Amino acid sequence: MTKTYKIAVIPGDGIGKEVVPEGIRVLEAVGAKFDIAFQWDEKDWSCERWQATGRMMPEDALEGIRGHDGIFLGAVGWPTVPDHVSLWGLLIPIRREFRQYVNLRPVRLFEGVRSPLADRAPGDIDFMIVRENNEGEYSEMGGRLNKGTPDEVVIQENIFTRKGVDRVLRYAFDLAQSRPKKHLTSATKSNGIIHTMPFWDECFAAMAKDYPDIRTDQFHIDILTAHFVQHPDWFDVVVGSNLFGDILSDLGPAVTGTIGIAPSANLNPEREFPSMFEPVHGSAPDIAGQGIANPIGQIWSGAMMLDHLGHPEAARAIVAAIERLLAEKGPRTRDMGGTADTVAVGKALADLI
Ligand code: NAI
Ligand code: MG
């Protein structure tokens, strides 16, 4: 019998509205082949909605999707709404309310794609970033005193809990365990940040004892960014706090050619709540409305959703289609040096499947 999944679809803003339909097109194509059906529950939660109603999403929004099987999101943010309003009004509440404490972001150099780094070949860059997604530097604790005066004081607190750090580290160790290289790198800054980062390092060292067959190392975030550029072949799984993971996961895909192909999964590993799948990139106001956005990041995010839903072979079929399209010089968008539009790339991938 065909399995039907109920998926909340949030195209959001800007190019989100252009790449999400291509993600759905490819998921429908792979679903037809592997006997998987989707019920798409589309939501208009966005900056447009904020301007009309004063809220990014309705008050009872999350209640309404709590029982869904997944969330497929494009991008959120538009220049007419402050970015902290759009982020804290939509994306962060979903990640927290549904305890999606792992943000998993693959970084891979494909055959047929030119890396901005000289002399890097496919196979040289193939690693996973595990970003803590619920706490850390992205916290609403703090405040502003004497606003706008010479005596202004601004305080922003970081939140690191033992439970929160251990659970994301556990996920990263288990992921490293499942990969041939069995190598885990931790991003830290325990020289400058004297409370939270030494704590992070202690938790990392303690957990490493449970995984004697995993090779571990750690770097301060500043030199780690340099290593991403000079030695991307060193990495297998990289775990970082919310902020460090965010920065590394724009840099990683950039060294593989374009952020336009980078996918991500916001995972609730216990599966008590729906997980959310979205490209790493944002709403790209500079190119929105032109139909030239690269849909591959969205489409690959769809593959991560299928993997999470328990269909690894269907997920692999999508990644294999992306590999073929890129290797065989199929249509590609401007950010990859081509002239194809968003829809042409989506259709080409659906055809390959
Ligand atoms: P961005 O990722 O939207 O754009 C950065 C650059 O990459 C731009 O030059 C853009 O044209 C290019 N780019 C991004 N995605 C592309 C694609 N699929 N194809 C071709 N080119 C692509 O980041 P930016 O400019 O910092 O943020 C724009 C808005 O998006 C802001 O409101 C920001 O808050 C929001 N944002 C939302 C995210 C999300 O929904 N998860 C993540 C990052 C930013
Ligand atoms: Mg980011």
What's the topology here?
Blueprint: E1 3-12, H1 16-34, E2 36-42, H2 47-53, H3 61-65, E3 70-75, H4 83-97, E4 102-108, E5 126-132, E6 142-145, E7 153-156, H5 162-177, E8 183-188, H6 196-208, E9 215-220, H7 221-230, E10 237-240, H8 242-255, E11 263-267, E12 276-279, H9 296-308, H10 312-327, H11 342-352
Parallel strand pairs: 1-2, 1-3, 3-12, 5-10, 8-9, 8-10
Antiparallel strand pairs: 4-5, 4-11, 6-7, 11-12
Helix pairs in contact: 1-9, 1-10, 1-11, 5-6, 7-8, 9-10, 10-11
This protein binds 1,4-dihydronicotinamide adenine dinucleotide and magnesium ion.
Provide structural commentary:
By secondary structure, the protein is of the alpha/beta class. It folds into 2 domains: 1-100 and 267-353, Isopropylmalate Dehydrogenase; 126-255, 3-Layer(aba) Sandwich (Isopropylmalate Dehydrogenase), CATH 3.40.718.10. The protein is built from 11 helices and 12 strands. The longest helix is centred in the N-terminal third of the chain and has 19 residues, at 16-34. The protein is globular, with a radius of gyration of 20 Å. The protein binds 1,4-dihydronicotinamide adenine dinucleotide and magnesium ion. Magnesium ion (MG) is lined by residues 246, 250. Has multiple catalytic activities. Apart from catalyzing the oxidation of (+)-tartrate to oxaloglycolate, also converts meso-tartrate to D-glycerate and catalyzes the oxidative decarboxylation of D-malate to pyruvate.
